[in-house]
Design brief:
The protein is α+β, with helices and mostly antiparallel strands and about 160 residues long. The chain has five helices and five strands, in the order ββαβββαααα. The chain has a five-stranded mixed β-sheet, sandwiched between helices. The radius of gyration is 16 Å and the shape is globular. The protein binds FE2/S2 (inorganic) cluster (2 copies).
Length: about 160
């Protein structure tokens, strides 16, 4: 099958790849570009483990064809830390022990970052509602929600 040439931007870096037309963005991120932070939990848009942003919009990369990345700006979990400096969300997830197996964590982090970019001061209900598409089998969600609320406060410069 002939391959398509795609020019895109991933985590701020101009990126080009060749892909077969049926491949998903998740396939290409993981298998071609070796960005394996995004996880494949369900392949059907139900778990959120594959979450990335595309031109600032949160999407399930398992539901997007890789060829649709042409000309777009993609952000993955690999783009959150700056060198050794973790993003505040990543740091708070560590502090709150907001992960166990970690399979859901990249998607939860990407989704939480997208939330805080839209709403820097979410209520607990808003955090829970926003993250409803990110399934976690381990934590019971409370620690995740606390970590997101704490990161939001830190990013606003608010004292807890
Ligand atoms: S792998 Fe994409 S939503 Fe589950
Ligand atoms: S930490 Fe295991 S699925 Fe969320």
């Amino acid at each position: 099958m002939s391959k398509h040439h795609v020019s895109t931007t991933i985590n701020g870096e101009p990126t080009e790849f060749l892909c077969e037309p049926q491949l998903t963005l998740l396939d290409v991120l993981r298998d071609e570009l070796r960005l394996t932070g995004s996880k494949e939990g369900c392949s059907s848009g139900d778990c959120g483990a594959c979450s990335v942003t595309v031109d600032g919009r949160l999407v399930c990369s398992c539901l997007m064809l890789a060829v649709e990345a042409e000309g777009k700006s993609i952000q993955t979990v690999e783009g959150m830390a700056k060198g050794h400096d973790l993003h505040p969300l990543q740091q708070k997830f560590l502090e709150h022990a907001a992960l166990q197996c970690g399979f859901c964590t990249p998607g939860v982090l990407v989704a939480s970052k997208a939330l805080l970019e839209r709403n820097p001061d979410p209520t607990e209900t808003e955090v829970r509602y926003w993250l409803a598409g990110n399934l976690c089998r381990c934590t019971g969600y409370d620690k995740i929600v606390r970590a997101v609320m704490d990161a939001a406060a830190e990013m606003r410069g608010a004292t807890p």
